[in-house]
Amino acid sequence: MYFASDNAGPAHPAIMQAMADANTGYALPYGADTIMDDVRAQIRDTFEAPNAAVYLVATGTAANSLALSCVCQPFETIFCSPVAHIHEDECNAPEFFSGGAKLTLVGQGDKMTPQTLRTAIANEETRGVHGPKRGPVSITQLTERGSAYSVQELTDLCAVAKGFGLPVHLDGARFGNAMMALGCTPAEMTWKAGVDVVSFGGTKNGCVGVEALILFDPDKAMEFELRRKRGAHLFSKHRYLSAQMQSYLADDLWQKNASQANANCARLVAGLRDTETVSFMHEPQANMIFCSFPRAAHQRLHDAGAMYYVWSGTLEGDDPNEMLEARLVCDWSISDALIDQFVDLVRGNTP
Amino acid sequence: MYFASDNAGPAHPAIMQAMADANTGYALPYGADTIMDDVRAQIRDTFEAPNAAVYLVATGTAANSLALSCVCQPFETIFCSPVAHIHEDECNAPEFFSGGAKLTLVGQGDKMTPQTLRTAIANEETRGVHGPKRGPVSITQLTERGSAYSVQELTDLCAVAKGFGLPVHLDGARFGNAMMALGCTPAEMTWKAGVDVVSFGGTKNGCVGVEALILFDPDKAMEFELRRKRGAHLFSKHRYLSAQMQSYLADDLWQKNASQANANCARLVAGLRDTETVSFMHEPQANMIFCSFPRAAHQRLHDAGAMYYVWSGTLEGDDPNEMLEARLVCDWSISDALIDQFVDLVRGNTP
Amino acid sequence: MYFASDNAGPAHPAIMQAMADANTGYALPYGADTIMDDVRAQIRDTFEAPNAAVYLVATGTAANSLALSCVCQPFETIFCSPVAHIHEDECNAPEFFSGGAKLTLVGQGDKMTPQTLRTAIANEETRGVHGPKRGPVSITQLTERGSAYSVQELTDLCAVAKGFGLPVHLDGARFGNAMMALGCTPAEMTWKAGVDVVSFGGTKNGCVGVEALILFDPDKAMEFELRRKRGAHLFSKHRYLSAQMQSYLADDLWQKNASQANANCARLVAGLRDTETVSFMHEPQANMIFCSFPRAAHQRLHDAGAMYYVWSGTLEGDDPNEMLEARLVCDWSISDALIDQFVDLVRGNTP
Amino acid sequence: MYFASDNAGPAHPAIMQAMADANTGYALPYGADTIMDDVRAQIRDTFEAPNAAVYLVATGTAANSLALSCVCQPFETIFCSPVAHIHEDECNAPEFFSGGAKLTLVGQGDKMTPQTLRTAIANEETRGVHGPKRGPVSITQLTERGSAYSVQELTDLCAVAKGFGLPVHLDGARFGNAMMALGCTPAEMTWKAGVDVVSFGGTKNGCVGVEALILFDPDKAMEFELRRKRGAHLFSKHRYLSAQMQSYLADDLWQKNASQANANCARLVAGLRDTETVSFMHEPQANMIFCSFPRAAHQRLHDAGAMYYVWSGTLEGDDPNEMLEARLVCDWSISDALIDQFVDLVRGNTP
């Protein structure tokens, strides 16, 4: 019963098979492999972006930090949510890769709004050269609280950024989950809404470790390549990244995995909704939820070996009825049986 | 006929199998997987270093840059060969990860000597705070010209460094090839000689993409972990790095692959030695050689699709007898038939 | 009528005279001048800190950034007020000099409290290597809103930092103003309270451009020297920095200037207090105040050439009675006549 | 008898007077002072460059590092002489300000030639993204060995840089000394020859501490301003920098000081030329020379308190006839009597 994150389940068998299939003979290193040519073509097609520059790296933090470093000067500030992965979970990687840029936290909670974003941007550059210059806006989709910005919300945020002449980065570590929740196209969720550069996640959605970085404006392509190498993120045996991404895109595997993860989470939500002691902190939309239920239920789960983050409060405590918040994430692979077992434990039934 | 590098052949089947075997159920992310526990134990055992801190990253540049950043302040300078990978082939990654340290090039050619190293170190810090402070010494083993430092040479270089109180890093992208050429133990080639931190390469020697970073003094372990995360080199699905390294160490696969690559190269050398038009620039020792032969031979190879670097001169030219230098690298997988075909083409025989 | 800042008035004549006196014959460069020996001795004596390392730089941002870079790793975060100069007014200099550290904003308003500081520190390092490590606490004294932390408040903040094993930096750009307001000794306001490193400001208090950096623990002295040189803040003709600081310390000039500036501000406050339309945002303590009064008064001041920051709202507007906030700073040199003229204009009297 | 550097003599009285004259009333901070308007106009006029962006900083290292950081990406390499100040005497400041760029050392000795520069540039970017990209060329004028590039030499070097599309920086810490030695105009020695950005030194030539940074193409002006602030090199009481530079430019004081320093050095050279035991390492051109003479003469100088760098060898030694090299620098202020005394001591006469 692993609900801690979508980075701990197995890779999809098709991904493993693709890596095995790629393991024959010689292939040009450093991204010159022929599989990468196909990946590039597929991504351009998927995103309806025939001129996009497309690159692969192995971690989400690399995708985000390198992307931001291409659109941010060291004397600028990046606008993001206070709970953005780039702020909370990358150990200063954006500051490192950008050469010392600042992050300006926008509003409260996981979602920026046009109003909070406009206020935050307007507040910068009121101090001449004394404060940093305004830099890129970084949007996390899914947010770190499991919410999806609607296409309209994305469009409105991008419009604010564009009004100030600022580039927009989308951290799409859970791109597929968000898109399947919204029912839109990749283009609608990105460049058509005003996004300039996307971290298109594979790792959390069934891959071994691969993320695509898509620059809709290819002017920064060579700079990205140099920063990738300098950041030690250019793989010599690149074909194994390419093979993962090729397989991930083929037959819409990425969409199927994301749909499955979302469906798994919906089953979990449905089970918990029937449980009167559970209350949800955010409206469930995709594959990550935050909800609270009594300590006694947490203790039953813990004793049964369920793994997830107790988000607020601590398992230890005297009051069995105290409500503690849980973060629960479903990946594509978790079984109905485990989900139902989890729900039963929350309810207090013997599983 | 791919002799351009040892990073373009396939991974060893055992490595692929290990990744496939690891692809089952849930595994704790970010290096907390149980396979990593075994890897750590194996490496400590292999290196006779029970207290060593051991980490995995996916690229050699990451291993080198992160290692150096843990033992180098930004106001220091790193001593290395003028042809060191960290100087010529990492697009300023050491400068980036160290926060702006300098590289001081020692002597001429691929090998530092105690004399050239002592002179270079002595020349620094003669200018008070105006020049950089002396920082770590970085040794490449194999060198970028295919030579192996003997254990005595390593010991002597480390003694010079220690005499100035400086730490020593070993770039072991081709660690196995060097060790099998020398016939020594891992400990003899590292900490017993005076090395403090090692990049222990897997990628060029049959893995998909994994390098171990070994800190014999674990005091810097937490700093390394933080710098790895900040450099975006901490893998969430870390088990696939662990599985590669576990399999690489098991049954001495790494030594067998390295021996095979060296043997392949020895076959190539033997064939070329019988060819009167070939002269060697360095004494062949492991799996990489530099030799020169007439342009006509290069053209035959080129026409037959052989891939390798023409190291000096250009394929185009009027004089068929002009000697052009080639860099030739054998990986573990290249077949006797292809090696012989290459030799035949140099000789001018119809293959 | 210049109330915009204390960085626009003239230097004290004694400072200018000291620079002129120093302008004779040869003096060893780069801080080896004999005047610096006296400065070092005087500062150690003034701060009752016989082992302190003492250095001079020419700007407050240099003092702060270099100090922080000596006590902060690039994978750490600095704790400070949301209105701290290092956050709002140094264009990412702390991020630059630290190599990419983050700043964590503590609480609301200009003053950190033990409670808000403890909460902020506790919240970091709850995410393993994913978030930054806890780094130094930086306290601004005077705050950027003109308040002075009491010695007890400083002691309590330092105790929180020490409880977590963190170093404490004091940004004393207005050190003298704060100390004279509190009536304590330099030692009481620094190391006796738990401060480890101080930026001791001269520029805003009658000097041309000089700040002392005092490290009570001299272990980092050589690192500071190297970082100062690397930051291009080591002056060749250092004697002119030394001469300023020597004269600033002699006969307690720094205390006299600060007292005079505070007294000037007290006169301004007294005048404004008698003006019923003025309300103060913070209790005036030293030489900087924030207060609000009607737009009509602002317009009279503006027309008369008074210079200061309209801190909230804009001068242009229809409603003459709308209250707009002003930031008013007095330096040591401003005359009673100009202060009285300013007050008269607020009152609406013809000056 | 101070011949160690031109940074240890007094400032010219006119410079001190200008600072004193500026010390009256209020002046807008941070470069908005009215004196700076005049400085900007004078420099544009002096350099026949009506559109140039002009800024002031207080140290030569700041001028060089900030200038280079505006024309160099962190994944590039800077081309300079192996004895360039930016390489040997700035403790990694160019690496720091550029965010980790490399320095590629061109040829041997103090002067780059078109041939050595072309070779060095051509050698870079032969390795795709694995090596750094070509960045700016930095020329030191005077060189660190006291030589002046002729206008033709500068033009030829710039032509090589331009042929590769690279910007050119001139480190003019001793700009005046070089120009007066050549007898050319400021424009001829800079933009007319192909220089893009100049560090125009004042400190070594009679100022207290001020250098002008001149960007002939003002496109980078705002970036320079932000980098200056972020580097902590923007002075609040900027008027004292402006006043120095205004006075330095007025009545060609900078040219007079430089001529005087060169004349002082010529007197020294003439005296030493008459001394048969002295041999010159470089042809004396301006105010810095390198020459060798017997240890006995060095010891006489040392005993008499003369200060200068023994450039090779050590004062201590048995052989009174061993030739040791000296670096001797004359500033504008050194008297004929001291020069003659120095020469007499070399000759062995009782002074």
Automatic annotation (TrEMBL), chains A, B, C, D:
Pfam annotation, one family: Beta_elim_lyase
Q: Which cofactor does it need?
A: pyridoxal 5'-phosphate
Transmembrane stretches, by residue range? none
| Domain of life per record | Bacteria
Q: Please report the stretch or stretches of sequence annotated as the Aromatic amino acid beta-eliminating lyase/threonine aldolase domain.
A: 3-289
Q: Name one GO biological process term.
A: amino acid metabolic process
Q: Name one GO molecular function term.
A: lyase activity
Q: Which Gene3D superfamilies match?
A: Aspartate Aminotransferase, domain 1, Type I PLP-dependent aspartate aminotransferase-like (Major domain)
Keywords per UniProt: Pyridoxal phosphate
Under the subunit heading, UniProt states: Homotetramer.
Similarity section: Belongs to the threonine aldolase family.
State the PANTHER family in the record. L-THREONINE ALDOLASE-RELATED, LOW SPECIFICITY L-THREONINE ALDOLASE
Can you say what this protein is called? Low specificity L-threonine aldolase
Native species: Shimia litoralis
